[in-house]
């Protein structure tokens, strides 16, 4: 693959030079002709100058007339007929310089359009040019062979060399450093450990590594992105076709103004002048440039929109329906809490569960293994592993029979409490037990994306007035997520058919967008005006019917796409209205005899340049989000990484609070209190203090001032007060258990600190850490 990519490199500059020649060649030639004619006229040879200018006029008239006649033959009536009439009129009245300037104007417009189109679509073209065509595959008997990409199958072991494009989706066999910017929009290099998944299309920015293919080339991420890019470059936006619809009114209006100018004055030259300034380049060129610029910009933000029509609809959207799992939530379970039997070890319970689950393909097993590895727990190799579908997995760890899954029989008191806690929180429970009984329970959750609530707010600011969450999950869990992100309505326990029916119902009232990530979302995506697939994690089926794909696993890029679409549509409309308004004003002046054809041609040229350059503004602006400086981004990464340790302290804090609540006289009570206080003072408070001194001041710029972090600073004060309160109770208790009069206030302090800390972490992750790309 790498060899073939390098062989293609010399051809690309040749193609680019040829493309530039086609863009600017006609304009350059016509400019030379007009200037040479001007030189001849100044030298006292007006006849020769007129011959050159007439030749330029004919050179422009012939292809324009042929194109117009061909469109009329196919019953397509467009505004370009005005340009043909203006060129022909200039020849009739012998205004050869005016005809040459019109020809120059048309060539300038086409060259600017081609340049703007090439600039606006360069990101989409880059995707197509970088598409891998072959891969290096390891032979079963040893050695490496280069094979066509369509011969790569699931399970093949590949080699990705330095600088190569990853050919198919797979898992890395060694640590790898990757540049994922083309696929995800993330500018920084990303490190992937052995066993982690990697999407096709990313670039190997480090040493070569092995890759185990998990999808064929046709089903891989990059292939789907390339298909969307090909379709995006092959379609025209509705506003491009809108120019032809406007012709039904604009062409007759132009002919009436030209005819009145001629009729009232008896001077045919006035009619020609009107036709010259009426040439509708703003409508023909500026609007498609703005739309294609929006497509290109959305692609740079990690959103591949299928065509200009979809982008235009996205800019008009008023209703959003969004799936819950994998869209508003992470889509994969996370071990939120580990509850252990009295006297048990939380890390040991998680280690035993993850060790047994290492061989299971179940998604819950992957969550347990990932959690244990993140915490640095040494996993043992299980023996005698058996799995009973729907019940769980059992195996021997260091000679000890461990079972992970459902729990039979009557639950002990601590286990019943854990089950009730999970039910209230909408979490699922995985029980860990041995021959003697249950050892602990691991509570799993599908966490809400940290950027979900911020994205919902931005979507409302962008003009979406109705947001609905649809999910097949149970009502209680769905309601918790709906409240967390702030949607307007909720539809729970709905089948794919019910989702599609709800989308159809909403689409009858307003332009509707549907966002989903799974195969079950495909029917609903197809029913929406604009279907958006979470392509970074979603299924090929959902991406295949979508009008746009988020190639990065971040929901806030959807808000980026909506803001970009509205910005591009606004500039497209602005360019058309302003350009045509100026043209109409010039037409009236020309009809009154105050604007001769030559001056009108130069004026129209200026109008064209102004509106086309205005349309290129769609390549920037319009986004409400603020990018954080690199140094601030590093601080966000640092403190976000420390939240895992703070959550570990929180787990011990909750266990200690439960111990004080149930067994305040236990000899383990005070040692547990002292240990959790030690971790709070030694780990949590320094983390909060460092955020106060370094992170919050750095966020003042991106967030618009110090006031944006003031409430979080107040949270730091409350956290310290509660930690000091625990220390005060320990000082009063001395070596013995807490006094009965202390227990009530101590419990309020412990549970209050647990609640405040959890809320504080969630707010930081939503308001601050989600700013990080």
Automatic annotation (TrEMBL):
Q: Which domain of life is it from?
A: Bacteria
Q: How does it sit in the membrane?
A: Multi-pass membrane protein
Keyword set includes Thylakoid: no
Q: Where in the cell is it found?
A: Cell membrane
CDD domains in the record = Hr-like (cd12108)
The record's section on InterPro entries has:
ATPase_P-typ_cyto_dom_N (IPR023299), ATPase_P-typ_P_site (IPR018303), ATPase_P-typ_TM_dom_sf (IPR023298), ATPase_P-typ_transduc_dom_A_sf (IPR008250), ATPase_P-type_domA (IPR059000), Cation_Transport_ATPase_IB (IPR051014), HAD-like_sf (IPR036412), HAD_sf (IPR023214)
Q: Where are the transmembrane segments?
A: 24-44, 51-69, 81-109, 246-265, 271-292
Key word Transmembrane helix present in the record?
yes
- Stretches assigned to the Hemerythrin-like domain: 637-770
PROSITE patterns (UniProt xref): ATPASE_E1_E2
Q: Which SUPFAM superfamilies match?
A: Calcium ATPase, transduction domain A (SSF81653), Calcium ATPase, transmembrane domain M (SSF81665), HAD-like (SSF56784)
Q: Coiled coil: which residue ranges?
A: none
Q: Which family does it belong to?
A: Belongs to the cation transport ATPase (P-type) (TC 3.A.3) family. Type IB subfamily.
Q: What is this protein called?
A: Heavy metal translocating P-type ATPase
What is the organism field in this record? Micromonospora rubida
